[in-house]
Amino acid sequence: MVHIKRLQEEGSDIITPIGEIDASSSIELDLTIAKSVGEGFTKILVDCSALEYISSAGLGVFMSYIEEFKDKNLKMVLFGMSEKVANTFEILGLYELLTIAKDKVEAKKKVHEV
Amino acid sequence: MGTKALSRLLFAVGVITWVALLFTDISVVFSTKRNLPAEIPTWLPGVILNLYLIALYYYYKLKIERDDQLNFVDLLWRVFATGLVATVISLILRLPELLPIFSEQKDPNNFFVIITNTFIYLVNLGMMSGFLIMAFTVWKRLILYQKSKWLLRLWAFFEYALLISLLYNSFIFLHIEWLYNLLLGLFITVGLVLSGNLKWVAYLNFRQKWTSLLLLLLTIFYLIYGFYTSSSVVIEAFGEFERGFVDHRSHIFILSLMIFVMLYSIFSFLVILFNLPTTSVFEQKLEEVVNFQRISQSIQTEQSEESVYNILLETSVSSVFADAAWFEIKNNQHDHRVFTYRISEKEATDIIRHLKDHHVTGVLDQSSDKTKNLSKHLGSLRGSRFRSILAFPIYVKSENIGTLALLKELPEGFNKEMTKIVSTFANQAGISIENFRLLEEALQGERYKEELKIAKTVQKSLLPQMLEKDSQFEIAAFSESADEVGGDYYDTLRINAQETSLIIADVSGKGTTAAFHMSQMKGIFHSLAQSSIEPDEFMVRANRALVYCLERGSFISASFFLVNTHDKKVRYARAGHCPVLYYCAATDKAEYFKDKGVALGMVRNNSYSNFIEANEFVYAPGDVMVLYTDGITEAKSTKGEEFGYERLAEVLMEVKTLSPLQIQDHLISRLYEFSGTQNINDDYTTMIIKFNNEHKPI
Asked: Same structural domain for residues B371 and B509?
């Protein structure tokens, strides 16, 4: 089960998933990101500090946006992952494809890089 | 002996005894007239008559009681027909009496007249008793149509007592006035009590009732005629003097029978007559029962919910003689459909809107009193032919799913009784719809399960039956999937004497799609790894092939190995798959190979080659390579702790010197021990490769 919070800070949308993202709850994450894009946000931050677990389906959600973001020149930065969650991202090679920051400060810096 | 043969025999016995009776009677009459001593015993005619009666009794018992195909009207028809034959024959025999010449010549002592009279009398008696016994047997069937223990006992008593009374008649010397009266009184009383059983009448429809009335009326007429004839003939034939010998009028069996048959005929006639006006009500009730049955059976036979609704409409309309009906079903706020019967959808929606517009609450929503007459609200709707309306909610699992509305063109067309019936119908319909939905759900679940079963079989068949062997390495592999089908895949393929390729992969997602992607992965592996191919090149090509069939968001993690036994080298590439756990015998350490690699299907353009790299290592005898899927490292204990990488390495260290199969068994048993359950929640897949000395036998 996952609970997703959204708040806006300095022109970027901060999405905070709380709990576990598995095959069924990944749909919620997908909808949230889609909504954020639909509302016209170009800078999206994903706060993963309260994310306990993410399954391959959840990773698939982030992955599925990579190309769209590139085409539309949007930026998404993930930050604050626990070691376990970070490991999952790392193994699948998503560190290469996604922008991942250590904390919010670093994430904000990265999201403003051109 | 068959029933047919038996009934023929009984008929023959009847005819013979009747002829015998004729001769003995004539003989008795003769000897009396001429005051001669009797040549035959005076009790003989009585005994022969009884034999004749018993033969008839069993004859009809066989013919009527055993025939299940006769309905009530058929039975009455039989009685009527027998009566008709008896009466017609009797009338024909009486014709000569009407001729004046014949009657003038009448002389009681004339030999010819005596014979003629005796003959006529006996023909009448024979036909009459046949008719009576026939009627008696038929009445028995009618009376016992709905039987109780008590009724059966009473009837048995009546029947046996009547048969025993035959004995009484056989012996003239037993003729005692008070006993005779007592027996007759007893039979009449019991006959009266039995005549109260007329339940069969209720099962006749209107037409059958009319037919029955006619048949019974004629039967009663025959009975009266028969009674009158037998008494008049006997007086004519024998005068007042010889009664004691041959008069069978006082025969208690025949008399009791006649009274009983008469009583029951009159009772039946009257009851049917008085039941006539209420027949339609009974018929309607019967139709309701049939309709109920149709509704409850419809769930088994009907293909769709729609046909269940249609049956509901049809049956409720026919039960209360409504002119039209509709059934409005609400799936949710916006989605509602109207099924109609003998009314157009437009008309129905017009009425619904009209009632809504006039704020007639409680007509089409259900919180109100159901028996409320809503017809007055229709009066204000112009252009509608309907003047009465009755609406009911349909509940499925105590949730209101829709409204059943019945319409009549007559004003005030629904009475309380009808309201009750439709209310019962609505309840039954709710149950039927619920059952139908449950059945559908069960079927759906069954189909899904079947699909999973197929997917599981496919998945299993995609895994290799045999793994490659070599003098330098040994491989053991294991895969167990959870209830849902996973997409774990491993395989081996020998390229040439020195080179063997290995693969382990994990398809994201579950179920049939996962099994489908897994089969694609297998196809890619078997075509690309045929010849020696650089591991990174393998991944690039695999990615290119998979991009076309993997939907957005799904991917495959894989590790590919090319083992070269000549150079004792392993070249490999890791595409997002769990890092290899490698035990090096020389350093006695187990570690994970962490290197770069993005899973297949994630990068959908040619830049993928930038995200994958090939690496190599040299192996030595005693080294162990453990390949696995994330189901293993992510296996959870009851406390929620993960099995993890460290524990996996520790487990390997415990059994590093054993054969790959032993290592595998140990790992699996530790895994189950850790998770504390036999029901795994993910797929467990491992492939363990142990490198040996070349000289060591496998």
From this structure: no
Q: Is residue B456 part of a domain?
A: no
Q: Report the distance separating Cα B129 and Cα B456, nearest Å.
A: 82
Q: B432 with B474, same domain?
A: no
Sign of torsion over alpha carbons B310, B311, B313, B317: positive
Residues B374 and B398 sit within 8 Å (Cβ to Cβ): no
What total of structural domains would you count in chain B? 3
Q: For residue B287, is it within any domain?
A: no
Tell me which residue range forms the domain holding B653: 463-691
Structure tokens given for B562: 């090319």
Residue of B50, B56, B78 whose CA lies nearest to B7? B56
ipTM of the shown complex: 0.85
Chain A's closest residue to B595, CA to CA, is A91
Domain shared by B108 and B200, yes or no: yes
Q: For testing the chain A interface, which of B555, B608, B613 should be mutated: the one with the most A CBs within 10 Å?
A: B555
Decide: helix, strand or coil at residue B373: coil
Residue range B161-173, pLDDT digits in tens: 988 888 776 665 5
What 8-state DSSP symbol labels residue B629?
A: -
CATH number at residue B407: 3.30.450.40
**Do B348 and B495 share a structural domain?**
no
Q: What is the CATH number of the domain that holds B686?
A: 3.60.40.10
B108: which DSSP letter?
T
Residues of chain A whose C-beta is under 8 A from some C-beta in B? 23, 30, 56-57, 59-61, 63-64, 66-67, 84, 91-94, 96-97
Taking residue B102's Cβ as centre, other Cβ atoms within 10 Å add up to: 13
B697 domain residue, yes or no: no
The pLDDT tens digits of the residues spanning B36-91 come to: 666 677 677 778 888 888 999 999 888 887 777 778 888 899 899 999 998 898 88
Same domain, B242 and B95: yes
Cβ B602–A63 below 8 Å, yes or no? yes
Q: Are residues B486 and B428 in the same domain?
A: no
Cα(B626)–Cα(B686) distance, rounded to whole angstroms?
7
* Residue written as token pair 């190309």: A67
Complete domains list, chain A, with CATH: 2-112 (3.30.750.24)
Closest CA to B656 of B583, B580, B592, B587: B583
What percentage of chain B has pLDDT greater than the value 70?
86
Averaged pLDDT score across all residues of chain B: 82
Radius of gyration from C-alpha coordinates of chain B: 49
Q: Which residues of B touch A60 (CB under 8 A)?
A: 508, 553-555
Give the residues across from A2 on adjacent strands: A19
Give backbone dihedrals phi and psi of B507, rounded to 5 degrees, phi first.
Answer: -90, 130
Using the beta-carbon criterion (under 8 Å), do B598 and A97 form an inter-chain contact? yes
pLDDT digits (tens, 9 = 90+) for B549-577: 888 778 899 999 999 999 999 999 999 89
User: Do B523 and B563 reside in the same domain of the chain?
Assistant: yes
- With CB atoms and an 8 Å threshold, state whether B577 touches A97: no
How distant, in Å, are the alpha carbons of A2, B210, B255, B271, B594 from that of B213? 81, 5, 24, 10, 103
pTM of the prediction? 0.53
Same domain, B612 and B528: yes
Task: Give ∠ CA B635-B640-B644 in degrees, rounded to 5.
Answer: 40
**Does B98 fall in a domain?**
yes
> Range with the lowest mean pLDDT among B532-536, B676-680, B685-689?
B676-680
The DSSP bridge partners found for residue B315 are none
* Closest alpha carbon within chain B to A90: B576
Chain A residues with CB-CB distance to B598 below 8 A: 92-94, 96-97
